[in-house]
Amino acid sequence: MSTEIPPPGETPRPARRDAEATKAAILRAARHFLARQAHADITLKAVAERAGVSPPLILKYFGNKDAVFARVMSFEEDAEALLGAPLEDLGRHMVRHVLVSQREHGSDPLLRIAFAPFQGDHGDILRANFRAQVTTRLAARLPGPDAGLRAELALAALLGLGVMFGIARGTDVRSTPVDETVERYGPLVQAQLIPRAY
Amino acid sequence: MSTEIPPPGETPRPARRDAEATKAAILRAARHFLARQAHADITLKAVAERAGVSPPLILKYFGNKDAVFARVMSFEEDAEALLGAPLEDLGRHMVRHVLVSQREHGSDPLLRIAFAPFQGDHGDILRANFRAQVTTRLAARLPGPDAGLRAELALAALLGLGVMFGIARGTDVRSTPVDETVERYGPLVQAQLIPRAY
């Protein structure tokens, strides 16, 4: 409802914006599949279909399938959302984030690490990114000793919740209101974040 | 050291025993891969190599690759070992079981469910077996309300520990003595098994 004139830097440039929007759609589609199945099972055709573009357009923009995947192996944005709460409420916030992502999108962003292949560059890059962008970042916020171990154990509990909800498809957790599961499971995660002595 | 003569039913029959041993080796090899990678990535050749047999021998015994996999989709034996402790110590026991399996075998048997494909019979059978043989069996032992949900959340924490140790390869959890992680993480699992009011 603003009547202000947009500043010069924000003048829309339709053509470029369209290319950017298309690239973003391709990356979103690749991300969608990487959060749901093994790398080897994902075809360029499936990514193209989901993005509403042709496979050759993906090749034009990115070169090849692996180059697309390389662009979506960052956990940077996911970590931002996952860790976006004050420490005293972080356990509950993270549990809620995983559950809401699973309910709304059929997966959660952390779960991509569960599909990291045992061998090869793809898995190693995912593991390194997960460590640097999620584990280390969480550990840096934790008071007390053994922050690295406690960050890993808190994240383990969250990863398992995603596996149980999204892959094992546990009937009870899927039919329980988010708030109730947050109340039950949040304190478990929180117990790793703030050690008893604190 | 017994000098007793074996009863007639136990007279060794080498030829048959060899075939059984070979089949068992094939199933062990299939199980090994299914606990480590996606179904689609596993070749008959790899299973044969690991079992020390030829691919045609696998086909002779089982018919095809999927028939081999169908034989190793049970969690029956795993559940026996995982749940083999009194309720008051079950949380710690289960955490120890996952950690020791990961350390000794590079995976844990529950983790097979994390590789269950989203689509297709293979994933659906794994999910149904996991529910019937692990979740439901654990839930049946739990006192108090919402036993099904609490069983799923306890198993979620264990699944996540396997993902963090075996797939994300968390450096801290991998370098921490089993006993210490059991002390830290066991109570989280136990908290789901026995509700506070009990």
From TrEMBL, chains A, B:
Name of a matching Pfam family: TetR_N
The UniProt record lists the keyword Transcription: yes
Molecular-function annotations in GO: DNA-binding transcription factor activity; transcription cis-regulatory region binding
Keywords of this entry: DNA-binding, Transcription, Transcription regulation
UniProt xrefs under InterPro entries: Homeodomain-like_sf, HTH-type_TetR-like_transc_reg, HTH_TetR, Tet_transcr_reg_TetR-rel_C_sf, TetR_C_16
DNA-binding region in chain numbering: 43-62
PROSITE patterns documented for this protein: HTH_TETR_2
Positions of the HTH tetR-type domain: 20-80
Gene3D superfamilies given in the database record: Tetracycline Repressor, domain 2
Protein name: TetR family transcriptional regulator
Organism name: Streptomyces gancidicus BKS 13-15
Lineage: Bacteria, Bacillati, Actinomycetota, Actinomycetes, Kitasatosporales
